[in-house]
Amino acid sequence: MIRAPRQALSHILLIAILALSAAAVQAGPLLPQSRAPGDPVALRQLLVEAGRQGAVSAACCRVCHTGQACGNACISRSKSCHKGQGCACDG
After folding, report:
1. From CA 85, how far away is CA 54, in angstroms rounded?
2. Among candidates 48, 51, 90, which has minimal Cα distance to 67?
3. Do residues 69 and 88 touch, judged by C-beta distance below 8 A?
4. How does DSSP assign 51-74, residue by residue?
5. What is the domain partition of the chain in residue ranges?
6. Which of 27, 37, 62, 89 is such that its CA lies 20 to 30 A from the CA of 12?
7. How far apart are CA 88 and CA 56, in angstroms?
8. In sequence order, what DSSP letters do the residues of the chain get, joined into one string?
9. Where is the signal peptide (predicted)?
């Protein structure tokens, strides 16, 4: 007879722990975010923002300082690019 209340108490304690754990998971991150989690942000825009901070050189195969990025290469700013987006970045 003593086991029944103790077993019920352990079940209640287990349910409370699971409920609190689920609530903590649903709460989301504790750190503030600069963007809402559901906002789609283009990878290129993130690279451009990071480039302003000087962290893009590893993501770009070439950084174009005098010309403009065109595919995987740099071309003169006076010319128009006819290639798709590549790994070169404007610097």
Report:
1. 21
2. 90
3. yes
4. HHTT--TTT-SEEESSSEEETTEE
5. 55-91
6. 27
7. 11
8. --HHHHHHHHHHHHHHHHHHHHHHHHH--SS--SS-TT----HHHHHHHHHHTT--TTT-SEEESSSEEETTEEE-TTSPP-S---SEEE-
9. 1-27
**pLDDT tens digits, residue range 56-90?**
456 789 999 999 999 999 999 999 999 888 899 98
The token pair at 14 is 């287990």
What is the value of pTM for the model shown? 0.37
- Kindly report the number of other CB atoms within 10 A of residue 5's CB atom: 9
